[in-house]
Structure formats: structure tokens, C-alpha cells
Design goal:
alpha/beta; Rossmann fold; elongated; five-stranded mixed sheet; six-stranded mixed sheet; Nucleotidyltransferase, domain 5; about 375 residues; 2 domains; 14 helices
Length: about 375
């Protein structure tokens, strides 16, 4: 019998929902000796369900070895925060799982929940991936997709030379303004609870990409709250830290800030009509997209100067990310009106030192499904 144990648990799905599985390890808190391991495929379900199932399996195993005190360590911020009572559990599929975990926890003298980076949760992660492999009957999809991004080089047909600076372009998670489709530029709003979940899902996606996690990646963000919250979730998962770059801030929408599209169109019908098609037109008291382009281009030069030849996580807003993709594609201003970016989306662009560039991914939200 071991009185004090550590439970490390993890879960995931390939597709979210997709073939899913969990892994859990119980260790002696003093010696680190492994006392029990659990893994199981779960059929088709979501990441969060699998994370909770991993926690439940770990707590059950801890009870079986006679533990009285349990330190739970997981890389799921959602589960840790919900089980600690700091976040509400609104998802109906998670409520009975959280209740079951709570019942198991009540059987111990003490249970403490701690979030850890994915890099420190490797044993449980390995077990979860083995369970998912068995469930899916094939090799892991996410690492395979990430490997493909690194394996297929555009240099053979573009003539690009040198080591590129790779930008992982992340739009911040959901805010109340984005839900209501209001102009949200310099107004400093935070993420909704769902937006915080999106940020965690995005962070886990990046942490699972092959080649990421060997060393902390730089995370550079717009200084507004919604981008900083998203960036911090990513930095926590990758073991890095967040720095800010003011040039990545969203468009200044001036007097339209906080208005819906319809309200802005009613208030200034002619200006709004022109603004929707002409990048030289500014919102009253605000910026034009041409002005945004110039400052984002300057911010890109700062990124090149600081991080040349490295992979950089850039957390920003719709217009700056569209602008960076426009620069990479060497496209005209009409791209700004034709490209859609969802909250918590991932886009990837490589910029080569000889001036060439390659856009590898645009508006990927597979981690949110």
C-alpha cells in the first residue's frame, strides 16, 4: 500500500470527435516508481471526453493501490480547472464524467489537481496514443500530418533557398464581440469561457505537432487581452513565454468600434460601402487596411530580425493575419475581402531569406471539432 501517489492522465481523439483513447499512470510520490498503468480505446468521441476518462481511470487505479493522498497532473487545462472548481462545466457530455471523477476523489483524504505542460506528461501521452492507435487501426493522424508539413518542401518548384522563418499564425479565441459580430479592434475584451476552451484546444494541437516541444518556441502576440490569453495558453503548453509586438494589433475601427456591421452601415452608409471594397478607405476616426498593411509589414520585418530561420508562434487578429498571408502569397488587397479566418484558427506560412514564401495551411480548425 502506498499512501501518497501521483496520477498522470491524458486523453485524445483523432479528429475530435474521432477514434479516441486515454492513458493513465500511477506513481509512488516519493520514489517515482510506477504502480499501475491504464489505457483503453473509447470508440469515436472528443478530446475532452477522453481526457476525463483518463482521469477516471487514473483515480480508480490509485484507489486500487490503496492511496490516501493523490496529486493529479494533466496537460488538460480544461479538466484541471473544472475539477478544481474554478471553471463551470456546461458541456452536457462532460458533466456525468466530472461527477464520476468527483465521486472517486471523495474517497481519498486529499486530491490536488495540477496542470503540467505536455512535455512533462509523456508517459500518459504515450499510453493514450497507443490506445488511439489500436482504436483507429492505423498510425497517428496528427503526427503524420505534421510530418507531411515538414517533409513536402516547396523549394523544388519555387526556387526558394535557405532556412525559412516559419510563422504559426493563430487567431485568438472567441469573445463576446465576435459572437455578436461586432467591430472589435482596439477595444480590450477578453475571451469567453468557450474562447478559453478554444485556446486550450489550439495549444494542445500545437504541442502535438511533430518537431514542436524539443525546445520552447517563441510566442509573439498582439498586446490586447484576447490575444494575450490565447498566447499564454499556448506558451504554457509549449513551455515558453509570451512577448508582445504592438504592430500585430487589430485594425483601429474608430467610431465603428462595438457596432455591428448593420449598425455601422446605417450610421455611415456611403463610407461603409466604400470601406467594404477599398483598402484605402478608413473607418471614421480609425485606420484603413492600407495603413494596417504598412504597420504589419514593419512588424514582420521585426520578426525576421529577431527570429530568422526559426519557428515562431504569432497570435493576432483577423486583419493582421490576413495581411501576413497576403504578403506570403504576394497577393493583391482583394484577398482581405475574400479570406475567412475563424476564432482559434491555425495558418502556417514559411518566409525564405531569398524573398520567396510558401503558405502551407490556412484557417485550420480541426482541433475544435
Amino acid at each position: 500500500m502506498t499512501a501518497h501517489v501521483v496520477v498522470e492522465a491524458d486523453g485524445g481523439s483523432r479528429g475530435n470527435p474521432g477514434p479516441a483513447g486515454y492513458g493513465a499512470v500511477v506513481k509512488d510520490a516519493e520514489t517515482g516508481r510506477v504502480l499501475a498503468e491504464r489505457r483503453e480505446g473509447l470508440g469515436v468521441t472528443t478530446n475532452n471526453v477522453a481526457e476525463y476518462q483518463g482521469l477516471i481511470a487514473g483515480l480508480e487505479a490509485a484507489a486500487e493501490v490503496g492511496a490516501s493522498t493523490v496529486d493529479v497532473r494533466m496537460d488538460s487545462k480544461l479538466v484541471v480547472e473544472q475539477m478544481s472548481g474554478r471553471w463551470k462545466i456546461k458541456n452536457a457530455a462532460l458533466q456525468p464524467l466530472a461527477a464520476r471523477a468527483g465521486e472517486l476523489a471523495a474517497g481519498f483524504d486529499r486530491v490536488r489537481y495540477e496542470w503540467i505542460p505536455r512535455a512533462r506528461n509523456t508517459q500518459a501521452d504515450r499510453l493514450a496514443n497507443e490506445a488511439m492507435d489500436a482504436q483507429a487501426g492505423k498510425e497517428p493522424e496528427e503526427p503524420a500530418r505534421a510530418r507531411a508539413l515538414d517533409r513536402v518542401s516547396p523549394t523544388g518548384w519555387t526556387g526558394a533557398t535557405g532556412t525559412p522563418t516559419r510563422l504559426l499564425l493563430l487567431r485568438h479565441g472567441q469573445t463576446e464581440m465576435s459572437v455578436e459580430r461586432r467591430y472589435s479592434g482596439r477595444g480590450d475584451v477578453g475571451l469567453t469561457e468557450y474562447g478559453r476552451w478554444q485556446a486550450q484546444a489550439l495549444a494542445k494541437r500545437l504541442a502535438g505537432m511533430e518537431g514542436i516541444g524539443d525546445e520552447p518556441l517563441p510566442v509573439v502576440a498582439s498586446p490586447l487581452t484576447r490575444t494575450m490569453q490565447t498566447a499564454q495558453a499556448v506558451a504554457d503548453a509549449l513551455g515558453g513565454r509570451v512577448s508582445t509586438l504592438p504592430g500585430l494589433v487589430e485594425t483601429d475601427f474608430g467610431e465603428w468600434e462595438g457596432l455591428t456591421f448593420a449598425e455601422a452601415a446605417t450610421r455611415d452608409p456611403e463610407t461603409h460601402r466604400r470601406w467594404m471594397t477599398d483598402t484605402a478607405v478608413s473607418a471614421p476616426g480609425g485606420e484603413s487596411f492600407d495603413q494596417v498593411h504598412r504597420r504589419v509589414r514593419a512588424a514582420l520585418d521585426e520578426l525576421f530580425a529577431e527570429y530568422s530561420g526559426r519557428t515562431v508562434v504569432v497570435v493576432s487578429h483577423v486583419t493582421p493575419i490576413k495581411t501576413l498571408l497576403r504578403v506570403a502569397l504576394d497577393a493583391g488587397p482583394s484577398l482581405l475581402f475574400r479570406l475567412h479566418l475563424d476564432p482559434a484558427s491555425l495558418s502556417i506560412a514559411d518566409f525564405y531569406p531569398d524573398g520567396n514564401a510558401s503558405v502551407r495551411l490556412v484557417n485550420d480548425i480541426s482541433h475544435l471539432r
